[in-house]
Amino acid sequence: MRLWGAVASAALLSACSGGIVPPEAGSARAAASRPAPAPTPSRAPSRPGSLSETPIHLPARQPTPAIPLPAMPAPAASASTTTAAAAGVVPGPALDTLPITQESAERALTAYRLSCSALQRRTDSTGLTQGADWADSCRAAASWPARDARSFFVRYFETAQIGDGKAFATGYYEPEIHGCRERRAGCEVPIYGVPSDLIDVDLGLFSDDLKGKKIRGRVDGRSFVPYFDRTQIEEGRLQSRAPVIAYANDPVEIFFLQVQGSGRLRLPDGGVMRIGYAGQNGRDYTGIGKLMRDRGLLGPGQASMQGIMAYLREHPEEGRAIMRENKSFVFFKELTGAGPLGAMGLPVTGWASAAVDPKFVPLGAPAFLSMDRTDATGLWVAQDTGGAIKGANRFDTFWGAGDDARAIAGGMSARGTAWLLLPRGVLARRAAAVAPTP
Questions:
Q1: Across residues 367-373, what is the average pLDDT?
Q2: Residue 362: pLDDT above 60?
Q3: Which residues form the Lytic transglycosylase MltA domain (predicted)?
Q4: What phi-psi label fits residue 305: left (phi over 0), alpha (psi between -120 and 50 degrees) or beta?
Q5: Please, what is the average pLDDT of the chain?
Q6: How distant, in Å, are the alpha carbons of 2, 260, 283 from that of 342?
Q7: Averaged over 405-432, what is the pLDDT?
Q8: Tell me, which fold does domain 10-48+175-335 have in CATH?
Q9: Residue 28: is its pLDDT beyond 50?
Q10: Structural domain boundaries of the chain?
Q11: CATH topology match: 10-48+175-335 vs 84-171+342-434
């Protein structure tokens, strides 16, 4: 469920490195870095079918400050550390001492129920837990009353701090833009499905040194060549090669929806069409925000998604050229079931799900964040990943869809303390395993 923080993110401000297929983090969101502030929604059409109103973009919501709880004394994890187990794990505070609200506990319990089965089947890359560790809490969660959700977490979990526990959280949401199922005046930007001639190549089949590496491209005569880039696609090279699943009315909005990886199209009749990530052209991602900042196009306070979008609209020809410098292009599919989906293949829950680095947080596990703003403080369930959500204590919080989600995610940049919630007994087992032999 793919990214937006308080300053422009690497998803907008920096380039994706490496020439292999960019990382993908499930249907909810395209791989992205520290999220940039999200714009508030465009003004709704004055009547069904009206698509010509100019979008408005309000400032991101200002947070209510809070004082984070102090972390337990522990050294910071080394930058070269690759798992939670290697980063150092220390017991955190007792769960019944943490300021867990009833609302936060209820949302987290709902989200935890969704991922429990998958959590037990997955191999935990953190090195901390085994599938069977979660069995008791999963059985209990299935019938635990929501009104007593806080006591569920107190009963079945203990807190663990990874490294120094210093946490950083951004936010993402499911964006909504105007669109149509068929092309019409004012709704003419094609949204493509996966092209029929786009080919994935597993390089590991050719060399053991390239295991896990893939490239994408197409066959041209007897050669395998890179797939069409953004400019070529926008100039019509996909005609007869890819289905058009819908149309957008604003090229800037659909550009940013590609960065996000999934979203909603508000249709002229008031209905909603949900679309999600289906593929990518294999070209490197380039963050246009960094390009604009380096060229002096963004002044102080403009390095936000709102500022970037405003500049692109005010300078349409230059804006189109800037967007085309990002050669990466995302293809979509219509989503008809529950969603958006996170990296576990399960629906993510607004105000409860978070994207994490699965090497430091078990996917499906709860965590408690005590942050310097009240909205980010509470229980979150790790149900998604992100291409640049890396390292210990890094969280990308999901806020759902709609005005509130866009406003909160747009300004989300919180710092504080994180504690994982692990099944009771895991820390004691780990301590016994690492204790020196007498």
A1: 98
A2: yes
A3: 176-333
A4: alpha
A5: 86
A6: 8, 13, 23
A7: 92
A8: Ribosomal Protein L25; Chain P (2.40.240)
A9: no
A10: 10-48+175-335, 84-171+342-434
A11: no
Q: Which of 172, 171, 167, 76 is nearest to 415 (CA)?
A: 167
Residues contacting 204, CB < 8 A, separation 6+ = 210, 211, 212, 213
- pLDDT tens sequence across 64-104: 999 999 999 999 988 899 999 999 999 999 999 999 999 99
Task: From residue 232, give the alpha-carbon distance in Å to each of 4, 290, 417.
Answer: 28, 23, 46
Question: How far, in Å, are 29, 85, 254 from residue 123 at the CA level?
Answer: 23, 14, 36
Helix/strand number for the chain, H first, E second? 12, 17
Per-residue tokens: 205: 């089949």
State the pLDDT at residue 302: 78
Q: Are the C-beta atoms of residues 366 and 381 closer than 8 Å to each other?
A: yes
Query: CB-based burial of residue 335 (10 Å sphere; 0-12 exposed, 13-18 middle, 19+ buried)?
Result: buried
Name every residue whose Cβ is closer than 8 Å to that of residue 235 and which is 6 or more positions away in sequence: none
Kindly state which CATH superfamily the domain 84-171+342-434 is placed in.
RlpA-like domain (2.40.40.10)
The model carries a pTM of 0.74
pLDDT digits (tens, 9 = 90+) for 163-192: 999 999 999 888 899 999 999 999 999 999
Contact in structure between 200 and 216 (CB atoms under 8 Å)? yes
